[in-house]
Amino acid sequence: MRKILGLLMLISAFTLKAQVNGENKLGSWHMYFGTNKISDKLSIHTEAQLRYYEQAKNFNQLLLRTGLNYHIDANTWTTLGYGYIITDSTFREFSNETHLYEHRIFERFFLKNKVWEFNFEHRYTLEQRFMDFGILKDIQHRIRYRLQLTLPLTNTFFLNFYDEIFINLQDDFFGQNRLYAAIGINVTDNTSIQLGYLKNQFSDLNYDRLQIGVTYNPDLRGVLKKK
Fold it and tell me: Which UniProt keywords apply (predicted)?
């Protein structure tokens, strides 16, 4: 009887914890990505993401990011960028909790290769995070590595998978891991849409997220030459 009571208490505690932090909710991420060529070697990265604890409601995070890319060759490039992030870390909607405001500087290195029909992309990121909690300010550093695999199905449809690990350079070593799978549609030569699922795992939390992402990569070199 004691064992049954203990098990019921454990299940109750787990359920209450999930309700408090939103682990039991299927959230959504709405994303835009752009790469705009301005010369043979340079392009501009633009990005906006709106993340929710639930489906398009209960705000979690706004992420705005931009950067300058230098293309070493067709399969290798680097990025120096800046991001502005607002985060509500509490699941309770309309709570009085203080938001986290973050200014982020990041450096990235990309390397692409192809094996048979599989397109691989390796992304290495170093981040300097200037964080404002309201009553406390902090500077943190972390590194990230993402391995992405894209498989064309037809000229229009493709599959996309990636796994990205976050490593803190202070405090706890493990930051988070993101596992992603999606189906993509090439709408035009420079526009695509992805519909996918993300498993976002922290050391003590797990979130499930549906994602819709739009990528728009217009080449601005002709426009700039005319001007």
Answer: Signal
Report in angstroms the alpha-carbon separations of 148 from 16, 78, 151, 165, 209. 35, 17, 10, 12, 18
d(C-alpha 218, C-alpha 132), whole Å: 35
Residue 218 structure tokens: 């217009």
Domain locations along the chain: 2-226
Candidate CATH numbers 2.60.120, 1.20.120, 1.10.4030, 2.40.160; the one for domain 2-226: 2.40.160
> b/e per residue, 205-215, with b = 16+ CB within 10 A?
eebebbbebeb
Instruction: Give the amino acid at 40.
Output: D
Spatial CB neighbours of 45, under 8 Å, sequence gap ≥ 6:
33, 34, 35, 65, 66, 67, 68, 69, 79, 81
Q: What is the pLDDT of residues 134-175, one digit of tens each?
A: 888 999 999 999 999 999 999 999 999 999 999 999 988 999
Q: How far is CA 211 from CA 60, 174, 184, 224, in A?
A: 14, 24, 11, 34
pTM of the predicted model, to two decimals? Answer: 0.87
Q: What is the pLDDT of residues 69-95, one digit of tens each?
A: 999 999 999 999 999 999 988 876 555
What pLDDT is recorded for position 98?
Answer: 66
